Amino acid sequence: MDCDCEIIHHDVVNNVRKRILNEKILLLMADFYKALSDSTRMKIIDVLYEGELCVCDISSLINMTKSATSHQLKYLKDMNLIKSRKQGKEVFYSLADKHVIQVFEISKLHILEDRNEKNC
Amino acid sequence: MDCDCEIIHHDVVNNVRKRILNEKILLLMADFYKALSDSTRMKIIDVLYEGELCVCDISSLINMTKSATSHQLKYLKDMNLIKSRKQGKEVFYSLADKHVIQVFEISKLHILEDRNEKNC
DNA sequence: TTGACAGTTGAATAGATATTCAACTATAAT
DNA sequence: ATTATAGTTGAATATCTATTCAACTGTCAA
User: Fold this and answer.
1) CATH number belonging to the domain at A38-119, selected among 1.10.10.60, 2.30.30.100, 1.10.10.10, 2.60.40.1730
2) How far in angstroms lies nucleotide D20's C1' from the CA of residue B87?
3) What is the pLDDT of residues A43-70, one digit of tens each?
4) DSSP B75-105
């Protein structure tokens, strides 16, 4: 697990080391992305983009079983990316905050520009 | 893999279905996040934040072996998140485009605001 | 041309994770 | 009360993936 080589450019490395982010923060950031790194969860974010939906509607839209959908909804909720509201037998899910939307938009741009550059 | 329940709110679902993103795009977006969803790769993005670095310097900064670092650098390069430049024996890596920086900043805000709300 | 160093690579392994399945709770309707 | 429906949950499994290891390439210097 330890580094197996020597630092080559000491001055550059020392400068970088000064402003490196806290390891715990970087871990939480990676976890934030992990929540978005699965296509099922990405589809869920997409269908919730303009408003709340119940579990059955989400399942139908993304074409997954209720169980699989519910597992991923729990994951997204635990990660604070979506929130829920219970009404009778149904549970409505919606996006939690503006960061989710912002990040979604940027990654969409990233993908689309990439495809344009490659003409595909 | 198929949905095991009925659509409950047909009008809402039909509206959502009209503007759902292409499945292929959503998959590519998820892959973009997957590239950022690992703490080692997140550390690499972090150390490259202000400029290019060679593999040994990166390895030292993130405290991983050259081999493990190189594998992850290849992953990030294949995903178009970083680019490389060879000079003599050394290979210098740097961030590929503004989207990486933008997304990095937003997720950092997301994590920091979250921590503030919970006082931790 | 030999040795040393920077970096890459493929296979193997150990650990993580998405989906399935079956059983479960909670609410509403008859 | 009973039944049906919406949703949740835990365990199991099959797949994926990060790191290690050893062998490799390419470049420079002596």
Assistant:
1) 1.10.10.10
2) 28
3) 999 999 999 999 999 999 999 999 999 9
4) HHHHTTSEEEEEETTEEEEEE--HHHHHHHH
β-pairing, A53-54 vs A90-95, is antiparallel
Residue ranges per structural domain of chain A: 38-119
Instruction: Report whether A50 contacts B16 (CB < 8 A).
Output: yes
Task: List the B5 CA – D3 C1' distance (angstroms).
Answer: 18
Q: Is the CB of A115 under 7 A from strand D?
A: no
Each residue's pLDDT tens digit, B45-94: 999 999 999 999 999 999 999 999 999 999 999 999 999 999 999 999 99
Q: Rounded to whole angstroms, how far apart are CA atoms A56 and B4?
A: 9
Q: Do A112 and B25 touch (CB under 8 A)?
A: yes
The Cβ of residue B9 has, within 10 Å, a number of other Cβ atoms equal to 16
- Cα→Cα distances B86→A3, A46, B34, Å: 22, 40, 26
Residues 57-116 of A with CB under 7 A from strand C: 64-65, 67-68, 71-72, 75, 88-89
Contacts of B25 in chain A (CB under 8 A): 108, 111-112
**Residue A111 one-letter amino acid:** I
N residues, chain A: 120
Q: How far apart are CA B100 and CA A107, in angstroms?
A: 9
Contact, B55 CB vs strand C, < 7 Å: yes
